[in-house]
Write a structure and sequence with these properties.
Elements (H helix, E strand, L loop, with lengths): L3 H8 L10 H9 L8 E6 L4 H14 L4 E4 L11 E3 L2 E2 L2 H24 L9 H15 L4 E5 L16 E4 L7 H4 L3 H9 L6 H4 L3 E4 L4 H14 L2 E3 L14 H24 L10 H8 L9 E4 L5 E6 L4 H14 L5 E5 L7 H8 L3 E8 L8 H10 L4 E6 L2 H13 L7 E4 L2 H11 L21
Helix pairs in contact: 1-4, 3-10, 3-11, 4-5, 7-9, 12-13
């Protein structure tokens, strides 16, 4: 039976995504401003936020700092989003803190209605952000790595007022909210540190993935705020479990952000103990950090890679996937288990992937936004792509596809599972008992599919 806290959280889905800080600030104040009881690093950008946050949190933790990590979306269970030292928030604490946020919202709303104003209605993401703040404050962490949900200036994570902001990349997204140009979106994301000089002065931006034009704009914007800018070199000595140059780029950002935080904190005496940044320790840590579901390799007992999980769910992400396959598996073709949501440009995704696929297997999950098998089959037939098998995603169907892949004597490539993060999450749930790389998810039961 679903808990009252989770019922409250799911009731927030109807409010969608509402940019703005008014509700979050009001509720933080009612909850005793938990966001001010720990130090924060923000991670913003169009792509790469999750992996950068994950790598950064791991490096900080390796240096002895009690480290919070707040990321979205989740793949299997909501508890993944709120972690301390890589351990998800316990279910009991999640439910308790959800009810604490609900009580604060009810109290603030009652006061506003009595004064003739509208009640406060926090969104799904705002509620989870508040739960993270409360949990991190209770647990007395040293630092939280906070991945923004959308934008930066008006994202609920911004109220934490972190001293470092990592900008991973800039592209056109959510233009109706963030602005019609990359320049406007850049300013929105950099606004996570505050748009007034008195709030932002002395903070640091770590900038990656920007064109020369945007980089010049970012430097000018930072200078106007009294902020420092660091533009890291892409390092050649980073080894990661996740395949792809873009992950090396994100890890390079994480190393600089970690060094900046640790060294400044050490000089200022604001963290316990004599901690100095250790680059060799950081590199050793990154070599073990596999960001789940993103060019993630799953090996069998013999060490042979059996499955590649990649949540590429749009044309941009598929291009990165294809680039990586070309680099790491030149000339190879894969059995591909593919599924996608109804609102995705499946035709373009399939065209990009087709040269790298030997046999297509199509699937769907029960999630209502998933594309029906008949629709997917029609898309593939229009591109003259042959469907080798199809079926609802289940352990039985997944085993059938894995057996088909393993029995193909002409092709010794791993099974590639891609097309949707929702499908990756469902696949992880089915496979987590079989592969050591998915051990993190054992003990996590599936929760709401909504990835807001």
């Amino acid at each position: 039976m679903q808990s009252i806290g989770m019922e409250y959280l799911e009731s927030r889905l109807m409010f969608g995504m509402v940019p703005g800080l008014e509700s979050t600030r009001a509720l933080c104040a009612a909850l005793g401003n938990p966001e001010k009881k720990f130090r924060s690093i923000h991670v913003v950008g169009t792509n790469g936020k999750g992996s950068t946050s994950y790598y950064l949190a791991g490096v900080l933790q390796a240096h002895g700092l009690k480290t919070g990590l707040y990321v979205s979306p989740h793949l299997v269970n909501l508890r993944e989003r709120i972690r301390i030292d890589d351990i998800p928030i316990p279910a009991g604490d999640l439910d308790r803190l959800l009810l604490q946020v609900k009580a604060a919202a009810d109290s603030v709303s009652a006061g506003r209605v009595a004064a003739g104003a509208s009640p406060v209605e926090p969104t799904f993401f705002e509620v989870l952000t508040l739960v993270a703040f409360l949990y991190y404050a209770e647990q007395k962490i040293d630092v939280a790595v906070l991945e923004a949900g959308m934008g930066g200036r008006l994202d609920s994570t911004a109220v934490a007022g972190g001293e470092i902001a990592v900008v991973t990349s800039i592209g056109l997204e959510h233009t109706e909210v963030l602005g019609p140009t990359e320049s406007a979106i850049l300013r929105e994301k950099m606004g996570v540190v505050g748009v007034a000089r008195e709030c932002a002065c002395g903070k640091t931006f770590v900038l990656g993935g920007l064109s020369d034009v945007l980089l010049a704009e970012a430097r000018g914007y930072a200078a106007a705020l009294g902020c420092k800018c660091i533009v890291p070199e892409i390092r050649g000595d980073i080894v990661l479990p996740n395949l792809g140059r873009h992950y090396i780029e994100n890890a390079s950002l994480s190393l600089v952000a970690a060094a900046q935080f640790i060294n400044v904190a050490h000089l200022a005496g604001t963290i316990n103990g004599a901690i100095n940044y250790d680059d060799s320790l950081a590199l050793k840590t990154l070599a073990t950090r596999s960001w789940a579901g993103r060019m993630q390799l799953l090996a069998g007992p013999d060490g042979r890679i059996r499955v590649i999980l990649d949540g590429a769910h749009n044309s941009h992400a598929v291009r990165r996937l294809v680039e990586t396959l070309r680099e790491y598996y030149p000339g190879k073709k894969f059995h591909c288990l593919f599924g996608a949501l109804k609102d995705k440009d499946v035709g373009e995704m399939l065209k990009l992937m087709a040269p790298h696929v030997a046999r297509w297997h199509i699937t769907r999950t029960p999630y209502p936004r998933f594309r029906e098998l008949a629709d997917l089959r029609n898309e593939m037939q229009a591109l003259d792509l042959y469907v080798a098998s199809e079926g609802e995603l289940s352990r039985e169907y997944l085993d059938k596809v894995l057996n088909d892949c393993g029995a193909d004597k002409l092709n010794d490539s791993p099974l590639l599972i891609t097309g949707s993060l929702y499908m990756i999450g469902a696949s992880i749930e089915l496979l987590k008992g079989d592969f050591a790389e998915l051990a993190f998810f054992r003990g996590l039961e599936p929760t709401t599919n909504e990835h807001r």
